[in-house]
Batch of 3 targets.
Target 1
Amino acid sequence: MDRFADSVPSGEAFQNKLYEDFEELFEVGDGKALDLTILANGLPVDVILLDCLCYQDDALFAAALELLERTYGQRKKLLHALSEVTLLDSEVVPVFGNVGEMSSELGFLLFLVRSSEVWGVCSRVAGPFQPERYDLVVRTCDRISEYLYHAPLESKPPPGLGARLGNAAAVVKKRLSLTPSLGDGSVDNPMAAMQIGSEIEASTDSDESNPTLFHQDVMRSMNLQTTLITALNMDYNLSFRGSICSSEDKVLWSVYSTYIDDPA
Amino acid sequence: MGLISALVSFGFQSTHEKIKDLLGFLVSVLDGRSDVEENMRPFAPLNARYHLTPVSPAVTSLKLQVVKILTEVSNLRANFRLAKLLHKFQTYNENAGLALDLKKLHSYVEENKVLQ
């Protein structure tokens, strides 16, 4: 594989600048001044922490070891945080309008999902049902789904790399369309062959059947998985909990929920 | 100690001078060479301070609190560095040449990630 410095004329200088700027966070100025040994007026913090490991106390051992690991893993931790970042070309995102709006809606969705035992039951503590909250959850989920299947916004690649990226995308598309999902051992099975055939047909027919990978990454960066896990842990019989509503109310609420899910 | 830990974690001890004043004292408490026996004499031999005794849990508990405060300071430091890094990223994007190089690097990484 060729190196970035060989592919781009200013690549090597840029890589050096990136490296120096990154190291500056640890070795120069404020970054260096926040070193624990300097903050402790020159006392050897690392040696003192090693000394703490010798005490017959499990909690102290664990805490001292964790702090040592943090001290010597600062670059790794920062690089890991960077690898979790998803870069966007602009603030504009489809369906939601902009990143701020998307973040706000996803944050409120997480709040609603976590507080379902307040708005999804009718009790003396929680008060009456709040169908508007349920509507909002459903609407936000629809918007997320629409965003995941929406085509990414067009952005111009840097000069010289457009053709290569196009080739890379073509290679990936070819691989995806030819990769059987059941493995090599299932090719002799006629049912498997039929399934593989239909998969290949589906993948070449329309791109709308697959979500956009980049949008999935963006949602992952926005911690959508936590919302989904929380939602999956919701009690499916939630509306039948509570103390002050009648059985008729509970059934009506269930019917209302079903109607919202499938108006037809 | 619990109060100091809470003050640090809530950001009330966030300036360099305040942290330095605090840590100088706390690390000297953590330093095992200053440990003393019940009669206020230094341990003899020195490694006797590691052993479990009726009073040692109180000492290790205090040291544990200090380590937790140091961990809070480490968190503060990590957040500060992340903020500086993001500021640098903003500076890169405000400079046309650097922003172009950054986009090229991003495209290059994405391309090679795909091909792998």
Target 2
Amino acid sequence: MADLHLPPTLPPLFAGLPRQLDVDAATVAEAIDRLDQRWPGLRDRLCEPGPVLRPHINVYVDRERAALDTTLEVRSRVDVVAAISGG
Amino acid sequence: MPRVIVLVGTRKGCFLLESDEDRHDWSVRGPFCEGWPIYHAVHDPASGTIYAAAASDWHGAGVWRSGDLGESWTLSSAGLAYASGDLKLSKVSGLTVAHGRVLAGAEAAGVFESSDGGETWSLLSTLDGQPGRGDWNDPSKQPPGHLGLPAILPHPDEPDRFWAVVQGFGIFETTDDGASWTPRNRGLRADWPLDDPEVGYCVHKLVMSPADRERLYQQNHCGVHRSDDGGRSWVEITDGLPSDFGFAAAAHPHDRDSFYVIPLDAGHGRCMPDGRAAVWRTRDAGATWERHDRGLPQHDAHLGVLREGLAIDALDVPGLYFGTSTGQVFASVDEGETWDEIAGYLPGIASVEVAIVE
């Protein structure tokens, strides 16, 4: 199970979505797929057609910058960050 | 007793201003839509649903909807995407509700439709084959803040007929629900060279007189124009205005010859001239213009109003409402003669629409 942390901009869009949850997935893309199955539309908030991660959506796996095909270990920590600056 | 609701789309969410039909005492609710930038919010009188076109810098584009006048909101972008690799949807720019469906204009330029109340969307047209289409989808030829296809004007009686505005290229009419299109820019002025005389016109706001289906007006980058034949030809009616530039416009609901614009300086500032706020009205189809500024700030008021920033209601004595880039909303309940500020500290405003609800 990966330890997945989401940005605060996401939970208000999906009923019941927490900021942190455990996800059984082999890659970042698979983790997002798991979330999308439970909260339809969530993939569109993080990915563009391709699919690729949206600009300004940054994903880190165990503190290393990651892409959709980055593999996850059993206890990987995955941080999804919306790179918000300014007002 | 009917209630009047002014729907305000801002850089940081949607707001609802509400009054009784006297339109003197207003309450403000919001921000809604999680603070997402709202390009255009509209109300569907048939279903009572509010729709708000949005684009987040981080989470993409979508359409928010509320079936309970703002108490709860849902976001959907299901189907709001281009299948082909050459077009990318960056924002939903404009919304129109007509004949039991919602139409959305998008950037890159395309028309999407929803027949299930905004839950899912499908692509109706990208105006393939129209003159200029290659250029308007070329990012190197797009200005900052490009809106793509920001407006769709429906025909009230003919569901398959509507006009689409492509930013910087002009008006295109379809009479077969987007299967084919015809440019409708004849007689317009462009202060720059054109590759094709049929297109290349910068239409900022297109409106139809509710009193006459053939009477259209537009505020263009280059002047104000009127059509008496459903857009097939245009005549310029700018003479008498302080500037030929502006964005917003509104047609009187009961009088085909009355029409409103808000002229702006044409340079980088794009604010009301001389720091003095005013709305201009014609009551003779553009032959003459009247300046109306009573109640509006007349000193150091550098106010901008964008293309969806002016609305008019359909009550017997219509009320007008405009929102500024600096977050003020002004209202007039005497057809533009006098004005009051009804909200003063909202985020920058992109759109203002008005609904009458029971």
Target 3
Amino acid sequence: MIDVSIALHIPDGFLSGGVALACGLLAIVAVGYGLRVANVELDEARVPLLGVLAAFIFAAQMLNFPIAGGTSGHFLGATLAAVLLGPWLACLVMAVVIAVQAFAFADGGISALGANVLNMGVLGALLAGLAVGAAMKVVPDRRGAFLSVVGVVSWLAVMIGATATSFELALSDTIPLATSLPPMLGVHALIGIGEAVITVAAVSAVLVSRPDLVALAPEELRRPLAAPAAQPVGGEA
Amino acid sequence: MGRIPTGVFVALALALAVGLATAVSPFASASPDGLEKVAGDKQFLDEGRLAGVQEDSPIPDYAFPGIENERVATGLAGFVGTLAVFAIGFGLAWVLRRRGPAAGGSGAAAA
């Protein structure tokens, strides 16, 4: 039998036609809106960023790390993409990654493509868009606080993806929710820690090198370090 | 520390991505991951199957075809895949990009 490599990647055969279709429609709406947002917001300077972010997420998803009990997990990337590009462009980035994985690498199903984009991309990206903004209204506009929020949200994004996957499997009559949800959440609670570590590391690297590229960071943090407003010409690095 | 030019930033990030996918992925854990593990434990893994178009996917299961050494096959798959994803993402963004000046003005100030 062909070795079907999964992940949170659902292969064909796990979902019923109805569930796959419903997830596909939701994914199309989100990605379609992402296309529109790109038309309005994506300036020429950020074009290569979208490409390189997709490439980085693809690469990082290949790096399965071992977790407890002969299981591995890998980075998903929706929170990273949302923090850097905003939630809607993040949906687009995740759709590119997951579609290439399905068509070129046979990783994740074709009829399940919408569900995979939804679970690993859209849900996490939209969660990050909402939760990071909301949390930053409560915590101080400092680097440490922002990175902590990003870490927690990226963990939550993985848990939401795992939860959605369990619901889709249950609605498809593949496995009851009560059977799949506890182990899915248990495994992904650990995978989420890896997600948080990688996301925080990547976001802090961008904050150091190009803070202006961190779309969801508070305005204060997006300015280059130690460059208050009234610098005259010549103070550039 | 300040800002590095966008071109340099992109080149460094792409080099990191290609490096990870090529040199590190061959040594990644081969254990079943999250859903795969649960599917195996709960006896529904066998319901998974490849779609028709995936029978002819160019690099099935992240192993570059025709190469016996598994690590080399995976590394090459990572190399090719990362560059392909970059090209597709870049191309899509280029096609979709905003033409003309900003409508809302957000982000323009930072440039």
